[in-house]
Design goal:
Length: about 325
């Protein structure tokens, strides 16, 4: 299971797992996952799922509010302009790490291996396995929060010998790129690529305000388009032959990687890896606020866009189980 970055759309990931947990066949699917990887939002939600936390609790936590703190816009502006006497991020990570740690302790399911993507001080994405002996629960939480530490929002976190690390998708693909590429080239069985945004070419845009009426939302949208659209096409173009033709929502492909290359084969022909791409549709994404909603991280309980993202994720989870497992309700 590979989970993508997506800012506030982490709520889509949480909704997907909440739906999965609500059916016997979904729980069978969860128990069948042998490893996970994620970047940023995908690392944060994925780490909690890998710890064994029910999707329902993760979704509930996200519904209850985002990153909390005082005067976030003023702090973000101070961080951006490097004003003396101010910290270099809008929020302190300590309360958020404590919150995630408390949630991680609500384990119900068995743990599974997890890899998170972080960006080091040389702006290189590093894929960090969280199952090495040195990674106790506090270190696993810190690594996941580091992967989601969007510059100016949350400060970098120290991860072992890598030093200070920040958001995993700052400079590369919105997945843990090396891990995902390795799975495509060497794995057998099944791979689920879970995106909380539509795949490239299927995102569309909401109407933009006139230049004279620029808003925080439009600025965030421009930032999000740059941060979350790069490299994904290159990853699949350079790895899979012929290159992936992204579709809207959920689709699948079959890959033969026996010869050290990823060759798509037709359904019914011998294959090594069954890849299922899962994402919101363009219509669902725009109904959540599109790219402008991606940086809505400072919100309170009952924030409707996040509640809607959770519902979209639940629809994705139900559709996945309906199509790839016998749907049996608890």
């Amino acid at each position: 299971m590979a989970m993508a970055s997506g800012g506030a759309y982490a709520a889509v990931h949480a909704g997907f797992w909440e739906a999965v947990d609500n059916t016997r066949s979904g729980q069978q699917f969860r128990n069948s996952v042998t490893s996970m990887s994620g970047s940023s939002a995908g690392a944060l939600v994925g780490m909690l799922i890998a710890e064994g936390v029910p999707g329902r609790l993760i979704a509930q936590d996200l519904r209850n509010g985002g990153i909390q703190g005082y005067f976030p816009r003023l702090r973000a502006a101070a961080a951006y302009f490097h004003l003396p006497g101010f910290r270099k991020s809008a929020f302190s990570a300590k309360p958020y790490i404590q919150r995630v740690t408390k949630l991680a302790n609500a384990r119900v399911h068995a743990r599974m291996p997890m890899t998170v993507a972080v960006t080091d001080t040389t702006l290189v994405q590093r894929c960090v396995p969280l199952d090495m002996g040195a990674f106790r629960l506090p270190s696993r939480v810190t690594a996941a929060v580091a992967s989601a530490s969007i510059p100016l929002m949350l400060p970098p976190q120290r991860i072992g010998l890598l030093g200070m690390c920040a958001d995993g998708s700052v400079n590369r693909c919105s997945f843990a790129e090396d891990t995902l590429r390795n799975k495509l080239l060497t794995s057998k069985g099944n791979l689920v690529v879970l995106n909380c945004l539509p795949y490239p070419g299927n995102r569309g845009q909401l109407p933009r305000p006139p230049a004279s009426r620029l808003t925080v939302g439009s600025i965030a949208g421009n930032y999000g388009e740059q941060l979350y659209a790069h490299s994904m096409e290159r990853l699949f173009r350079d790895t899979i032959s012929p290159p992936v033709q992204f579709k809207d929502g959920m689709f699948e492909m079959f890959i033969n990687n026996t010869c050290g290359r990823c060759a798509q084969v037709a359904a019914g022909e011998p294959y090594d890896l069954h890849v299922v791409f899962v994402a919101p549709t363009k219509e669902q994404y725009l109904a959540c606020g599109g790219m402008r909603a991606i940086t809505d991280l400072h919100y309170g309980r009952g924030y409707k866009p996040v509640a809607h993202m959770v519902e979209v994720g639940k629809l994705m989870g139900h559709r996945y189980i309906q199509q790839y497992g016998e749907l049996t309700f608890m």
